[in-house]
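Notebook entry, structure prediction.
Reason for the run: the old model in the group folder had no record of what sequence produced it. Starting over properly, with the input documented here first.
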Amino acid sequence: MAAFLVIGLALCLMPTPSSASFVFVFGAETQKSAQPRRRAAANRPQKKAANRYANFSHTTHVTKQKLTCDSCHKVPTSNWKDVRKGDDAFADVVEFPEHSSCLSCHRQQFFARERPAPVICSNCHVAVTPRDTARWPFPSLGEPFFTTVRAQNFVLEFHVAFPHPKHTDIECGDCHATYQPQGKSDDEYVTKPPKTIGDAFWLKKGTFKTRPLTHATCFTCHNQESELAPLPKNCDGCHKPLPETRRPDFDQKLAETIGVNDWWSLTAWRNRISAGAFRHELHEGLEVKCTQCHQATIANLANAKLSVPVKSCGGAEGCHVTATADEGGALNYELEEKKKNPSFVCTKCHLQYGKEAVPANHVNALPKGK
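New structure, fully documented this time:
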């Protein structure tokens, strides 16, 4: 289960540029000619500082400033019956926080003399003009948000600490399904690759799994009537900050080259922080169970890691990690090539990561002495 919450606007006070005085040099400078230079010098750092407020960061508010979720969010928002209609409506957070949640800290940014509107407004508003007050769809709405241009570079700031072992009555297929499977088709790629594709990566069908993008399934049981914790108002009961060092194994230019424009594929790909090239459908055909790779245990939820352990890829028992390189292990082969040539790019599983130095956990996954 994954859900997305945005908790307000950025919280770093913008420094006030120091005032500049005129310097008069007889015969060389006048007040009129000095004024444009003064403005240019003063506005450059101010504009640079203001741009910080165009990119909201949960790290600033939650991790560093230690703000609670209800400092900004009201659960549910007052318009929850209007955003979803009829039987689809449920008490949910479906809107950005009100201005009052931000003004106590960001009054200076809200009333900055920036045109057509203060840059901080772009965190929530579409046109950022005084006359157009329309806001972007809130991320918790799922598809209505992820199909907008706003979501093109959206990367999750949270992971969801979902205790799979506590939900044993729910089948994996109830929440996760193979997206765009190839099935019996001969066409294995999402878009047609060039004839000279060779070993280069090209996105294949059945690479990603679907997952819930809204609170709908969760709030069926976790609601005020049932009082089953965590309740909707306890956002941090599920949403845990991701490490600041987290980097998805995603290449925007490659995605554009491939011509992927499907919102779900791009959303899943932008947030895959382990093996960007891993294809789920291929492994389903090998009857590999989810738990053989994903360690969904109650014990590790407090410090959950979204990446899959390297030893899940076979260990010394076969598959991609074998006792020796001669037995065909992909990891064995690529580590051998990396030793011979440090510029070698590992492409079996990774996209961006494959260009980097081999991490210790990959080396340790090989049988000792082999």
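Summary: Residues 254 and 322 are 31 Å apart (CA to CA).
The old model has been moved to the deprecated folder.
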